[in-house]
Amino acid sequence: MSRRDAIDIAIVGAGVVGAAAALALARDGWQVALVEAREPARWRAEAPDLRVYAFAPDNAALLADLGVWDGIAAARAQPYRRMRVWDAAGGDELRFDADAFGRRELGWIVENGLLVDRLWQALSGAGVRLSCPAQLATLEQDGAHATLELDDSTRLRARLVLAADGGESKLRSLAGIETYTHDYTQSGLVAFVDHAASHEATCWQRFLPTGPLAFLPFAGEDGHRSSIVWTLPEAEALRLLQVDDAAFLRELDAAFAGTLGALRAVSKRAAFPLRRQLAQQYVAGRVAVIGDAAHVVHPLAGQGVNLGLRDVGALRAALRRQRGAGRDPGAATALARWARERRSENAVAAYSFDGLNKLFSNDAVLASLARGPLLGLVGKFPPLRHAFWRHAAGL
């Protein structure tokens, strides 16, 4: 690409957030280039992805507007109608029910691989220029453009560049954006299990002194399969990765108090380290950060990808205003309000999850005495319960 052939927007990273951003902005008429190191494997129904999300209604609406949600829902998206949260130390249970909010569902449990697959299949039809396999090598900025040089010697010159390349974002680093990082010294252990009782289209979460254990309803198997997300100290997670299925299921059943009956392992297990990481700024020159490049949060509320897609939705709205006025998409004035609002909302979410994790992931006497009544208070006060859910749902 010659120095005169600038495009509107270049995006580095084509996971859920990066691909959704590329598709949304291309559909709005911007010239978009997308850079990704490797093409994702095609999603296959017989090989479920261990990484799943509790997908919120506002983001389902975003993907519906992009023309991909119907295909995702038809392939495999499990609606959940209820949430039940309780503490192992006792006390009242907190419940959310779709009927109380006048909805058919509270959200959906969806695999990462399915989301990426359907978004990728829509990119070419939207006119997105895809560079894959390709990795970012260098970044140069001047007053009007940012130029990316890729490892295949391709140069992309754009008025706006988005870093969607994850928590270890190279583009964020090259742009000089630093992060505040806190290591939880915990891991999230994930797997699929079958259980004797039906999951009842319910997300179940039990707080333990070592961290929360969630059973998320998964489509198929007549309501008898769930995805588990178990927060554990790092050493404990490593130990449970190494034991055999029988030993693992015994400990899982004890941790979940036999809530869904006898368990059966139906997948491998995996674990990933947990941290809170927040970008100190969202814009540096012509570079903006979105998704995990901007914020990594504790998974106890399942909000990571939802926050990332809200970055996309808000940025899309801001850039639509610029396009309507014939203005530069990378101008500081176009991004300032978006950056301020998204950074504030994501920080509030991250520290809220951090506080919940600290309160519930310990066996201190005072914390144990407070947790059950706290859940009960939220559950017994409908306006507060509704406010919690509406915020999580993006409504």
From TrEMBL:
Keywords: FAD, Flavoprotein, Monooxygenase, Oxidoreductase. It holds the Pfam family FAD_binding_3. The keyword Iron does not apply. Pathway: Cofactor biosynthesis; ubiquinone biosynthesis. Its cofactor is FAD. Residues 8-319 form the FAD-binding domain. Belongs to the UbiH/COQ6 family. NCBIfam families: Ubi-OHases. This is FAD-dependent oxidoreductase. It comes from Lysobacter yangpyeongensis.
